[in-house]
Amino acid sequence: MSDCLFCKIVNGDIPASKLYEDDDVIAFWDIAPQAPKHFLVIPKKHISGLNKAEEADQQLLGKLMTVAARLAKEEGIGDNFRTVVNTGEEAGQTVFHIHMHILGGRSMQWPPG
Ligand code: 5GP
Ligand code: ZN
Known about the structure:
Layout: H1 5-11, E1 18-21, E2 25-29, E3 37-43, H2 58-74, E4 81-84, E5 100-104
């Protein structure tokens, strides 16, 4: 997707501070962190949101979770972190390439706003 911000990060057209990359996923620090540690894990494949994910994406989406947990551990927040996937504008999604937020390093409130 040539007009997708996160596809541009995947392709290296826009720089990002990366924590991790493999053939399937990349993880990078959020540009506007909402917690002392706030990074995103995304598939390299363009999927616009969780509402557009298909059965065939199951393994890839599962990988987002296991990579997120491993990186959280490496960043020292492995036992206390929040994972968020915003789906749709009203739920706070602003970038329409599926991504998982990982936030940690502070106490969290529930429910989120
Ligand atoms: P959403 O609001 O879609 O759930 O999350 C999008 C996230 O992407 C936001 O937390 C926002 O700060 C982050 N973001 C937007 N543009 C960029 C960028 O160019 N680089 C990085 N690293 N993060 C970005
Ligand atoms: Zn994309």
